Amino acid sequence: MIDFKKLVYKDFKMKKLGQGSQGRTYLGTLIATNDQYAIKKEEYLDEEDK
Q1: What residues form DSSP beta bridges with 39?
Q2: Domain ranges, residue 14
Q3: Is 30 buried (19+), middle (13-18) or exposed (0-12) by CB count in 10 A?
C-alpha cells in the first residue's frame, strides 16, 4: 500500500490538464506503479484562506 503522505513531486510524471480560477489540475502518473491520479494545485490569496 502506498503512503501518500510520503510522496513528493519527483515521484510523479506531471502533465497539465487545465487551469481555472481556483488553481491548476494535473494528471500525475506515479512512476513506481504507473498509476494515474488527478492532482489539483490550489492558489491562495493569503494565509487565512488555507
Answers
A1: 26
A2: 8-44
A3: middle
Domain count, the chain: 1
Q: Is residue 46 helix, strand or coil? A: coil
Cα–Cα nearest to 30, from 6, 9, 45, 1: 9
Whether 23 is in a domain gets the answer yes
Residue 1 lies in a domain: no
Model pLDDT, residue 50: 60
43 — pLDDT class (breaks 50, 70, 90)? confident
Predicted TM-score (pTM) of this structure: 0.72
Is residue 15 assigned to a domain? yes
